[in-house]
Amino acid sequence: MPDPRNISVAGRLEFPKSVVAAGDDLDYIVTNTGDLPIMLGAAYVLERFESGGWTVANPDAAFRGWGRRLPPGEQTQLTARLPASLPAGSYRLRKRLAADRDPHPGYERQAQCDLAPCEAIAGFTVKAA
Question: Which of 2, 24, 62, 67 is the most exposed place for a label (fewest CB within 10 A)?
Answer without folding.
Answer: 62
